[in-house]
Amino acid sequence: MTKNVTALDLPMAELPPETQRYFDICVEKLGFVPNVLQSYAHNVDKLNAFTGMYNDLMLGDSGLSKLEREMIAVVVSSINKCFYCLVSHGSAVRQISGKPELGEALVMNYRVADLSTRERAILDFAVKMTEASAKIEEPDRQLLRDAGLSDADIWDVAAVASFYNMSNRFSSAVAMEPNPEYHSAYR
């Protein structure tokens, strides 16, 4: 790591071959290693825990589409004002949807976005989790069922929203910098 990607001075550990391969795949697919991975790379065990959870929630089998999961990441990050996640996941929404305006709307105010009933229900639930999770009741879950989500899908919405609430707080606390490439991508 040539430049600190957070406000903390934590040098990158020597990466085991499987972790280096993971970083090489990032460079091959994205053109860079996301700073979130570089920030965790001072401790390979912590990096593996983070990437394991991320890969399961964002890339694993789910009734939620990749776009829906990225939309949750952006909307939760918008409520939490997490610069890193807004920039990186806003870019992902633009890429997956092919609609730059969708990524921008979700960053600013998801309520102005052109959303399906299902997407709106998912994002409303994620926002309620972020702002007042203790107030979620059965009618909130029922709204998701009425929008076509299974109970397993509701679990995944809750898990993704929870992950980004944690990640947002962490990223903000250490002043994680988004990769410059995210800013102009897919516009």
Structure, described:
- This protein is an all-alpha fold.
- Helix content is 69%, strand content 0%.
- It has helices at 17-30, 35-40, 44-59, 66-80, 83-97, 100-109, 117-132, 138-146, 151-173, 180-184.
- The longest helix has 23 residues, at 151-173.
- The mean pLDDT is 96.
Main sheet record:
none
Quote the average pLDDT: 96
Q: What is the string of helix and strand elements?
A: HHHHHHHHHH
Regions with little confidence, pLDDT below 50 for 5+ residues: none
Helix percent band:
55-70%
Shape: globular
- Number of helices, counting only DSSP H or I runs of 4 residues or more: 10
As a percent range, the share of strand residues is under 5%
Distance, first to last CA: 28 Å
Structural class: mainly alpha
Q: Total strand count, please? A: 0
Q: Calculate Rg over CA atoms.
A: 17 Å
Give descriptors for this structure.
187 residues; mainly alpha; 10 helices; 0% strand; globular
Secondary-structure map with pairings?
Elements: H1 17-30, H2 35-40, H3 44-59, H4 66-80, H5 83-97, H6 100-109, H7 117-132, H8 138-146, H9 151-173, H10 180-184
Compose a concise summary of this entry.
By secondary structure, the protein is mostly helical. The chain contains 10 helices and no strands. It has helices at residues 17-30, 35-40, 44-59, 66-80, 83-97, 100-109, 117-132, 138-146, 151-173, 180-184.
